[in-house]
């Protein structure tokens, strides 16, 4: 591909010289330094891996095995013999899947602590295929979430139209239902294909006791001995992920009573919520994720001690109605392993820690934003023993998402996102749970679990000293020519790429920077270096996006990824990029350098 032609009009064509993918100057200099007469043998490669890549335990045999793997995968290159690499093979090795940016250690964190000590990969309204108002309900998005490693599945359960069975749907909307039993069977089949660690099913229950009893029968018959069912009493402490391998856990509010009333909203009526709208025009991948860095929060009128608009509260009806009757479904109550509920009395009552029992509390994204400004340390202390679930506000009809970092930095375990709401917030979720072997459970840092005095409780909004500085070098990128049509980015010329790189973490660490834009180049070589001082590297995610500059319209999307800083491999690494949905491109990748100073 030496030249490429673009048709500008009927009689005029533009021709561009195509740049070949070749090693940048810095890579050539490293090869010269760690080779002899244009050849890098096992001894040379071992020194390079130890000195530059910081793989200090590398042996000569390891280096020789890597050379053999390279030569097997790069047979088309002109390699002199199987015991050494030339410059082209060395460059292709650095840019290959043999040189990933994250450690390949599988599950390596301590998995024997209580569930409350982990961030858990959590979905919201897991059954929806699209928007929150009119999309289909299906088991397909549940299956896809489990295949990706999601460990918390949410099901909204309602009586079907004949009131004799249970459907899963987003109540009082136009979403089409799916049978509960179908969802349960799919969960059983796919629960542990991506991870053997426990799956939690959170139920948003809108059922009378006779149907709650039917749910109990469905759940017990479907999951049988893999169902974790400790009884009707609250746990004093949550068990560990290790002890719950390949187990299913049910979490919902215990049914104290059901008040049957004729004054129940009809199905199909949208829920009303007093919030400000935000349907502004945004790029396909979403607006930049918001943070609390400036101390502002979304304006809203819902108080924390008012449950009337809480989407997690089932409709129990009007207790003053003459048609109300009390019922109890004990077999349903006995299924619940993680008890949920929101006490009356405001945020202080919600965050009160009971030394005799543990529970799950749900807050909307708006409630969390408001609470962290006045009760930040109380939230952190609450999450040391109890589970906090955060869910999107009710006006996100398009299934968009919010910034998950606010919840994670305050210890919230179940930060629930819409898995079909592709964009920057969900990319952060993907990045967070690439850690710990992608098992869906990531151990919270010890300082968030420190049960000390109020002065010792972690405050993510505090000004903290810099622990380390991450130095990131963006060398070059390639692969767009193979994965995209040649007029995808620009009809009249090759693309003009730039890279955005930055940190998502505590407010003090959060920042985005960008490279220069390189015009008319399918293989851009930026060779730019950035430094990111980190006060809390344990909670930092490295954000990487590539865009194509467009003078007249919005810039085009060229790929993204998000990586947990704590698991970055130092040295020069090949970073594969993903599309908007988080699916890895076949060829698109960046060559980057990572160093902690």
CATH superfamily of the domain at 116-254 and 330-340 and 413-449: Phosphatidylinositol (PI) phosphodiesterase
Helix content: 10-25%
- The percent range for strand residues is 15-25%
Number of strands: 25
CATH topology group of the domain at 116-254 and 330-340 and 413-449: TIM Barrel
Taking the alpha carbons of the first and last residues, their distance comes to: 41 Å
Mean pLDDT: 88
Structural shape: globular
User: Count of helical segments?
Assistant: 14
Cα-atom radius of gyration: 27 Å
Uncertain stretches of 5 or more adjacent residues: 259-281, 295-325
The helix/strand class is alpha/beta
Please state the second-level CATH architecture of the domain at 116-254 and 330-340 and 413-449: Alpha-Beta Barrel
Main β-sheet: number of strands, strand sense, barrel status?
7 strands, mixed
Under CATH at level 1, the class of the domain at 116-254 and 330-340 and 413-449 stands as Alpha Beta
Keywords: Cell membrane, Hydrolase, Lipid degradation, Lipid metabolism, Membrane, Transducer
GO molecular function: phosphatidylinositol-4,5-bisphosphate phospholipase C activity
Biased composition (Basic and acidic residues): 259-281
Organism: Cucurbita maxima (Pumpkin)
């Amino acid at each position: 591909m030496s030249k490429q032609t673009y048709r500008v009009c009927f009689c005029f064509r533009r021709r561009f010289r195509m740049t070949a993918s070749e090693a940048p100057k810095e890579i050539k200099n490293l090869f010269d330094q760690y080779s002899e007469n244009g050849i890098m043998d096992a001894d040379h490669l071992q020194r390079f891996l130890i000195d530059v890549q910081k793989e200090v335990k590398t042996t000569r045999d390891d280096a020789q095995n890597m050379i053999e793997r390279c030569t097997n995968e790069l047979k088309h290159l002109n390699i002199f013999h199987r015991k050494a690499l030339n410059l082209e093979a060395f460059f292709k090795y650095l840019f290959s899947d043999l040189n990933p940016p994250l450690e390949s250690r599988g599950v390596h964190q301590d998995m024997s602590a209580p569930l409350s000590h982990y961030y858990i990969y959590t979905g919201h309204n897991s059954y929806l295929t699209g928007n929150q108002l009119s999309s289909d309900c299906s088991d397909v998005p549940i299956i896809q979430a489990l295949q990706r490693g999601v460990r918390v599945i949410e099901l909204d359960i309602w009586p079907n139209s004949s009131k004799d069975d249970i459907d899963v749907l987003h109540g009082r909307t136009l979403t089409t239902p799916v049978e509960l039993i179908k969802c349960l069977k799919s969960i059983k089949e796919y629960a542990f294909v991506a991870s053997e660690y426990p799956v939690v099913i959170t139920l948003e229950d809108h059922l009378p006791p006779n149907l709650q009893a039917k749910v109990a029968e469905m759940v017990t018959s479907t999951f049988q001995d893999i169902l974790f069912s400790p009884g009707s009493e609250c746990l004093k402490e949550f068990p560990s992920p290790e002890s719950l391998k390949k187990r299913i856990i049910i979490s919902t509010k215990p049914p104290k009573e059901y008040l049957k009333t004729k004054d129940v909203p009809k199905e199909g009526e949208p829920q009303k919520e007093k919030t400000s709208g935000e349907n502004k025009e945004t790029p396909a991948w979403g607006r930049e994720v918001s943070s609390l860095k400036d101390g502002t929060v979304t304006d809203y009128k819902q108080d924390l001690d008012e449950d009337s608009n809480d989407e997690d509260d089932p409709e129990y009806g009007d207790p003053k109605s003459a048609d109300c009757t009390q019922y109890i479904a004990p077999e349903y109550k006995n299924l619940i392993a993680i008890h949920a509920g929101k006490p009356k009395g405001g945020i202080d009552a919600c965050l009160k820690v009971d030394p005799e029992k543990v529970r799950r509390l749900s807050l909307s994204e708006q409630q969390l934003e408001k609470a962290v400004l006045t009760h930040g340390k109380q939230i952190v202390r609450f999450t040391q023993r109890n589970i906090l679930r955060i869910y999107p506000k009710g006006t996100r009809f398009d299934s968009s998402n919010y910034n998950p970092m606010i919840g994670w930095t305050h210890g919230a375990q179940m930060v629930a996102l819409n898995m079909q709401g592709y964009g920057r917030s969900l990319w952060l979720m993907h990045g967070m749970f690439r850690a710990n072997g992608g098992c869906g459970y990531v151990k919270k840092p010890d300082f968030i679990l420190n049960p000390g005095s109020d002065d010792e409780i972690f405050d993510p909004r505090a000004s903290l000293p810099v622990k380390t500085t991450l130095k990131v070098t963006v060398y070059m990128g390639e692969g767009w020519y193979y994965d995209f049509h040649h007029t995808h980015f620009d009809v009249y010329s090759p693309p003009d790429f730039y890279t955005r790189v930055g940190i998502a973490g505590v407010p003090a660490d959060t920042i985005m920077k960008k490279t220069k834009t390189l015009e008319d180049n399918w293989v851009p070589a930026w060779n730019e270096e950035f430094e990111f001082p980190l006060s809390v590297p344990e909670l930092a995610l490295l954000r990487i996006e590539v865009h194509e500059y467009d003078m007249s319209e919005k810039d085009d999307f060229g790929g993204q990824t998000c990586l947990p800083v704590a698991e970055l491999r130092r040295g020069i690494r090949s970073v594969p990029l993903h599309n908007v949905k988080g699916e890895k491109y076949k060829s698109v990748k960046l060559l980057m350098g990572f160093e902690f100073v």
